[in-house]
Amino acid sequence: MSQTIGVLSIQGAFEKHRIAFEKLGLKVLYVRSIAELEKIDKLVIPGGESTAMVTILKKHDLWFPLKKFCSEKPVFGTCAGAILLAKKTHGLEKFGVDNSFSVMDIEVKRNSYGRQLDSFKTFLDIKINNNSKKIESIFIRAPSIMDVDSAKVEILASFKKEPVFVRQGNKLAVTFHPELTDDLSIHQYFADI
Amino acid sequence: MEKSAWETKVGLAEMLKGGVIMDVVTPEHAKIAEQAGAVAVMALERVPADIRKEGGVARMSDPKLIKQIMETVSIPVMAKVRIGHFVEAQILQHLGIDFIDESEVLTPADDENHIYKFDFKVPFVCGCCNLGEALRRIGEGAAMIRTKGEAGTGNIVEAVRQFRTVTREIKRIQALEKSELMSAAKLLQAPFHLVEYVHQNGKLPVPNFSAGGIATPADAALMMQLGAETVFVGSGIFKSGNPQKRAEAIVSAATYFNDPDMLARVSEDLGEPMTGIEIDKLLDNQKLANRGW
Predict the structure, then answer these.
(1) To pair with B21 at 20 to 30 A between CA atoms, which of B70, B75, B118, B222?
(2) In this predicted complex, what is the ipTM?
(3) Are B248 and A115 an interchain contact pair (Cβ–Cβ within 8 Å)?
(4) Which residues of chain B does A77 touch, with a Cβ-Cβ cutoff of 8 Å?
(5) A17, exposed or middle or buried, with CB in 10 Å at 0-12, 13-18, 19+?
(6) Domain parsing of chain A, residue ranges
(7) Structure pTM?
(8) Do B39 and A48 touch (CB under 8 A)?
(9) Which superfamily does A4-192 belong to?
(10) Half-sphere exposure of residue A104, counting CA atoms within 13 Å on the CB side?
(11) What is the mean pLDDT of each run of 10 residues along chain B (293 residues)?
(12) Whether A120 contacts chain B with CB within 8 A
């Protein structure tokens, strides 16, 4: 059965995710409305500014439909998307208690490495399907995963002993930007979930 | 680990796509912009409409103001330097600014050269009126390009003309034979390798945003439908009757630029827009878009 990958396109790196999944031969739909959400099998929440995304989602009544989707279906969050999947967040307090979709048992801090001058690229070992692979990874004003519930969350890559790529059931969270490099392993991994 | 790589510079521009970058002159403005859903703010002392009105030499803003704005919001903060003024850029980089706009809105410091932007760790955005100018700026290291429009006029006509010009020139380069590219580079006065990139990819090698004259949600959506990936709004928000409401409406318009129902709803009851200026009422030396070489 062919699947449709939705990319939340409120703001951010949605185009690069679309291109990555299309290279894998998958059907991709930009998601900006409830009607579009109903047409997809899996959702990607891209990087961008988490404050802008939360503001717009709440204003246009997409918050709760998305929260419901994320609790049930496969979801892949990168950077700002990873923050939105976390049960505990730091840096979105102004939105009150309900400031993320709370579907992964991880604790994430926004802009954890500093401002843009502290953005960096590096090579990381990622573990996919018991195979280890070195990939280029780009961190931009990136969040960090400060803590995970190790009984529920699998760590697939770390940087300086902190998890940067994790899986819990059918959810993936990545604090860097696999959509900005040519390696499609993580996108393929999500497509196979 | 490598900081300030080309990929991290262009990467930040990628993260700003589909959003709105707002000019702010106080920390209070910055707060309103962030709450409205801006993806970044441009910290400056005077919005372009006031620079136009008051005249005189417009320079980089007071570092104190920039620092206050950086402390107030958690989204990226940009600031402007004069064309060619690499020392203003060194100062902004030292402050830890997230993006520098080498901007025609300020009075140029060098009437022949722009800043060699590869020397800097912080990414730069530059304005352009056409493809040749865009590629020259990218050739010097700009990680993001925007139209200049005609800042501070509240008039979208120049941004539209410039954006259409860039798009048309990209299509023309795409359609050429490889053997015609050198001649095209000569005419565009653009680096050959970037002309080759445009020929192969049909787009600029960095994100392509729009600025200059955006005053309404419809203006923002117009630029997005023409292909702009994000919009800068300068005087249009804080020179209007109800900045907060207009800021939120323009943010919605940048996301839902293809949805007339949404655009109609967010355009309702926004109060007074900024007063506009007709471009042909400006003398040539009052046109900021003519600055840049």
Answers:
(1) B118
(2) 0.95
(3) no
(4) none
(5) buried
(6) 4-192
(7) 0.96
(8) yes
(9) Class I glutamine amidotransferase (GATase) domain (3.40.50.880)
(10) 34
(11) 95 97 96 97 93 92 97 97 98 98 97 98 98 98 96 94 98 98 98 98 97 96 98 92 96 98 97 89 89 93
(12) yes
